[in-house]
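Tutorial sheet, problem 5. The two components below are modelled jointly, 442 residues in total.
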Amino acid sequence: MRWVVAALLALTLMGCAAPGLKALDGLSGVAPRIELSQTPFYPQEDYQCGPAALATVLNAAGQDTTPEALVGQVFLPARQGSLQIEMLAAVPRHGLVGTRIPPRMDGLLAELSAGNPVLVMQNLGLSWAPSWHYAVAIGYDLAKRELVLRSGPYPRMVMSFNTFERTWARSEHWAMVALPPDRLSATGTESAVVDALVAFQRLAPVADTLRGFETAYARFPDNATLAVGLANSQYAQGNLAAAEQTLRTALLRQPGQAVIANNLANVLLERGAFDEAERLAEPVATHAGPWQEAGRATLDRVRKTRQASSR
Amino acid sequence: MKFVKSMVATALVITLPLGGFIQTAQASMIGVEQMQQASRTSEGEAARARVLEALSRADVVAKLERQGVSPEQAQARVASLSDSDAQLLAQTVDTAPAGGIIGAILLVFFVLLLTDVLGFTKVFPFTRSVR
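Model answer (structure tokens):
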């Protein structure tokens, strides 16, 4: 019985290269070898790899915190672990944007090459007997096909790409980076960037929110949510002229976009341009859809304000 | 523990309506959160429906009420979850052992709510506060 198990184990461990590594064929544009050795190290205690890994990436991005301070934010004692949602949700509370990165090895290496340590979730057990673990990837060597991690009690764990990819795949390749709002992740997709900023703006001061949207909008200039986020931050700061400019530019790129039109109407109203505000709000208020109610409220506001001012 | 739970519940009751006001200071201006909610997928809807279903069970409702959280508030909160968060929560609800479902919902629900609304988790007994 015992040798059967041993043989089966050997088979699983020695299987051919992990399928996820195909992404590395013909990889270009990344450094052949990198190690972000300035990344701090917090040895994990008990089961608390979540707080330790989180403290590692937060400190690497310049925020001063400790795993002990994070335990209450991301550790569920009953489960002896941290949920991915909490790990992501905790990042904005420290003034940083937490962005999920694509579930691919080449993306992971691109982030490292850009200087961003990556928080990864692994399953060090088997799919049917999971042993979940959070660690921070800090470097790699393409020639040796090895990854370097701050992991659990090990300040510098070297793992072959192959082994890492297998353990990472079992968490569905969950990984994220935590960065200041004026720095974008190297690989985050448009939707991941938007998700990250929407979570960020709930907790961040408006000046940081503005910087975050500005940076992301520069990379994805066709994204309406980012345009509206930037304009709303400018509006919240009382800079109506900047908000108007942002929304006008966005509306030129996406004529008829209801949210942009509606918000521009509000800004113009406050700047006294009643006619144009009304022209913009009217189609939003008459078109059935998720924005009709807001459009009606805007139109109503425009007409009332105009009446009040003409009296 | 009981005392702490009721404190958490009180905090929730106070903060839930507040969140709404902050978002819509100017009702006619549309925020990014609303935009994101409008772009939801059917998978996200299904996940929210699964969580809502668990939340509507009589034993769960009774337990929520004992914690001082009205089922309506809980449902409103779930309705505003993003697709990915709802899917994770639905998974937790699905994989928790039969007896632990309520516990899982409550625990995850509290943590989620607190982490993303206010950063208020220090009322939990196992927490050491950051601020």
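Marking note: Chain B touches chain A through 35 residues (CB under 8 Å). Full credit if you identified this.
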